[in-house]
């Protein structure tokens, strides 16, 4: 029983020294003197989010899901960062409590690991070790990739997960050919799904690589369905058993079940797992940031009430059900251009507008983006005079007709057939002033609960989203979003919009603050307080409700579309006709620029064109029955193009239709796939187009010379990549890429 103790325990392992060497060089290039101790470019934004995490303050970033921010915050947490730093200026010196090295460590590690990963991807595609080493070397010496990975930025993290998704899928695909449903088969398949979800979780543009992997997997699954060799014989061989005659004669039903198992495994790993991971990112995010913060206002009242402090502190203990006599503030659900509350004040609309149109000269009703006593309204029963809540309270239900009385002026919310001041096709909304002329009040409103579960639903504080439909004209109370002139104090216009014009979220309101009115006297009413039974609104808003709202806000929030000094267009990226000055030392001329290796960028673009021309040439000849490549070489060529050229296309072309400020670093994920394609094209030319040995030797010499040029440019631009050397004005001028390109041509 203990015989195994008589023999030594031996563990054998295959270690690829190429991978070890590439990993070591990648770590050295990314971790060496990791950036200055000052805020560098977009660190000013990411640093704010890290501080919010450290202080558990809620925030919203429209650029992407929270996974990438959480990874950066993890570095701050491990480094002992307390979140106390004012991220307000690029170039500001970090205080002693900011663990700069720890904050920048994760991007540097992911950037370093991308180097051996490029090597592994080309090996899995079936190309030579020489081509794989070439791809890794290009990743190692590409200046822009080095710069971006040495700072507290997310592009290197996104690139890492993009490459991990591709590598995992290739390893899974190769396992499929040998041992389907083995442990390694499941591991790589699941890792593919996890990597795809992480890429999307870092930045929304990660979805492009995810869709690429899904497309390739779909094509492979389609071929799998038609694979007649897929049978239980293969399963028996995998288990080491001898295939029997019975196994060879299995019915088609058994084969169909096996194919179905393959498809279900892929669906679970590539669809279900990423979806669950994506939800997990937001679940952890919402657990971490549970306190109210500066980004609350863009969220709904219900969401704000679920956060600790802020609105939750104000609304704690509010009555849940709105009753006749309730005092309420009404917030517009749409919240654009800014969150605001239904508001009125003593001022009236001018008799004549600037364009010559007349008005009703009634009391102004606006939407005001600040908390104010003039935001309070009283819900009144049209059949009674009381402005207090009875005992017991009579709740307001869907379909009830109500009047809204302005709390401070006691005038009724009104609309009539008079054009709104800035929206002449809509009705003016006012608080009625009786001028004893032939303009009667029209102040009855029907309550329409939009998110009701039944027609008997009660109007609830925060939870109910309602429309107020004018009884006389069927107009709906709506925020137009236009800013009134100075006579309206630049507040937002509120109008009555005909139902026939369609539904819009700007027509929807919700009660945010609520108390039961107890006094008929105006002065006492303004001062009254209440302390009813507490109602914890956070329990009424589930995780899925908060997730869906946060997701919607992130997707619809408008980014700053203004031009930036260093913004650029996608066409500028391919030609490298742009750069970004990331940091300048305040006392010396040391500086960091996001500047690509021009030899690599130009060659990668050329390789993409060459691949496209060769692919269509081969495709045309195959259509005519001429097969220039063996079938295995053709399939390898197509798969490499689908992943590398396709990866470049899906990560580059969408930027042409994006309405956002773009920078050079947006091109880096696409560039990574181009770099992988470059050695593929070089090996293909050497193996299949350079047929004679002398021509092949000449081509190899040219490739070596080309790699030398790329290394020379890397060394030349190194001071701007690492920012560790003071430069004279003449040296700076020489480092402009066009000038250095001319110098390079003259030298070689």
From TrEMBL:
Its EC number is 2.4.1.109. It is a multi-pass membrane protein. The keyword Electron transport does not apply. GO terms for molecular function: dolichyl-phosphate-mannose-protein mannosyltransferase activity. Pathway: Protein modification; protein glycosylation. One of its GO terms (cellular component) is endoplasmic reticulum membrane. The keyword Transferase applies. It is an enzyme of class 2 (transferase). Transfers mannose from Dol-P-mannose to Ser or Thr residues on proteins. Belongs to the glycosyltransferase 39 family. This is Dolichyl-phosphate-mannose--protein mannosyltransferase. It comes from Ailuropoda melanoleuca (Giant panda). The lineage of its organism: Eukaryota, Metazoa, Chordata, Craniata, Vertebrata.
């Amino acid at each position: 029983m203990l015989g195994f103790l008589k023999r030594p325990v031996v563990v054998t392992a295959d270690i690829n020294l190429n991978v070890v060497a590439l990993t070591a060089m990648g770590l050295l290039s990314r971790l060496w003197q990791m950036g200055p101790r000052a805020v560098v470019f977009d660190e000013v934004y990411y640093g704010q989010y890290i501080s919010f995490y450290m202080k558990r303050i809620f925030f919203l970033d429209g650029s992407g899901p929270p996974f990438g921010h959480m990874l950066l915050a993890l570095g701050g947490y491990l480094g002992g960062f307390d979140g106390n730093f004012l991220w307000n200026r690029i170039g500001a010196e970090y205080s002693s409590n900011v663990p700069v090295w720890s904050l920048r460590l994760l991007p540097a590690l992911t950037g370093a690991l991308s180097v051996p990963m490029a090597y592994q991807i080309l090996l899995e595609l079936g190309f030579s070790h020489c081509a794989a080493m070439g791809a890794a070397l290009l990743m190692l010496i590409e200046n822009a990739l080095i710069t971006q990975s040495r700072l507290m930025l997310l592009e290197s993290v996104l690139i890492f997960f993009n490459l991990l998704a591709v590598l995992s899928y290739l390893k899974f695909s190769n396992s499929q050919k040998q041992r389907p449903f083995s442990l390694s088969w499941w591991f790589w398949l699941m890792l593919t799904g996890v990597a795809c979800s992480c890429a999307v979780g870092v930045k929304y543009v990660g979805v492009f690589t995810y869709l690429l992997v899904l497309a390739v997997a779909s094509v492979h699954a389609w071929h799998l369905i038609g694979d007649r060799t897929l049978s239980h014989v293969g399963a028996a061989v995998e288990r080491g058993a001898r295939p029997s005659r019975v196994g060879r004669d299995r019915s088609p039903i058994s084969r169909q079940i096996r194919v179905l198992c393959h498809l279900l495994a892929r669906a679970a790993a590539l669809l279900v797992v990423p979806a669950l991971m994506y939800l997990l990112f937001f679940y952890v995010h919402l657990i971490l940031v549970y306190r109210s913060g500066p980004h609350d206002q863009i969220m709904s009242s219900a969401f704000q009430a679920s956060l600790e402090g802020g609105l939750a502190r104000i609304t704690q203990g509010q009555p849940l059900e709105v009753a006749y006599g309730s005092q309420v503030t009404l917030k517009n659900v749409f919240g654009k251009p800014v969150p605001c509350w239904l508001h009125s004040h003593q001022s009236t609309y001018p008799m004549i507008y600037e364009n010559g149109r007349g008005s009703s000269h009634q009391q102004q009703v606006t939407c005001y983006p600040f908390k104010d006593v003039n935001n309070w309204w009283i819900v009144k029963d049209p059949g009674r005079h009381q402005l207090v809540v009875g005992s017991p309270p009579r709740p307001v239900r869907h379909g009830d007709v109500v009047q809204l009385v302005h709390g401070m002026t006691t005038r009724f919310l009104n609309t009539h057939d008079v054009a709104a001041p800035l929206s002449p096709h809509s009705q003016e909304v006012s608080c009625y002033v009786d001028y004893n002329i032939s303009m009667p009040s029209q102040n009855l409103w029907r309550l329409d609960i939009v998110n009701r579960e039944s027609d008997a639903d009660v109007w609830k504080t925060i939870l109910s989203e309602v429309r107020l439909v004018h009884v006389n004209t069927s107009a709906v109370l709506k925020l137009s979003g236009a800013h009134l002139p100075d006579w309206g104090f630049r507040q937002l216009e509120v109008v009555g919009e005909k139902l026939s014009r369609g539904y819009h979220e700007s027509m929807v309101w919700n009660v945010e603050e609520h108390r039961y009115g107890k006094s008929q006297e105006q002065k006492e009413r303004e001062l009254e307080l209440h302390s009813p039974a507490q109602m914890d609104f956070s329990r009424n808003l589930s995780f899925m409700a908060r997730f869906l709202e946060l997701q919607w806000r992130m997707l619809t929030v408008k980014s700053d579309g203004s031009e930036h000094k260093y913004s650029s267009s996608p066409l500028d990226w391919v030609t490298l006709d742009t750069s970004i000055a990331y940091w300048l030392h305040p006392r010396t001329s040391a500086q960091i620029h996001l500047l690509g290796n021009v030899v690599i960028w130009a060659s990668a673009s050329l390789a993409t064109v060459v691949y496209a021309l060769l692919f269509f040439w081969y495709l045309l000849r195959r259509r005519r029955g001429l097969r220039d490549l063996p079938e295995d070489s053709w399939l390898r060529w197509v798969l490499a193009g689908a992943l590398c050229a396709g990866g470049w296309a899906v990560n580059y072309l969408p930027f042409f239709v994006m309405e956002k400020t773009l920078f050079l670093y947006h091109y880096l994920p696409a560039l990574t796939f181009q770099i992988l394609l470059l050695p593929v094209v070089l090996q293909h030319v050497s193996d299949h187009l350079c047929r004679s040995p002398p021509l092949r030797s000449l081509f190899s010499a040219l490739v070596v010379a080309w790699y030398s040029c790329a290394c020379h440019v890397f060394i030349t631009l190194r001071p701007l990549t690492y920012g560790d050397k003071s430069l004279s004005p003449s040296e700076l001028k020489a480092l402009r890429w066009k000038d250095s390109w001319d110098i390079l041509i003259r030298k070689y």
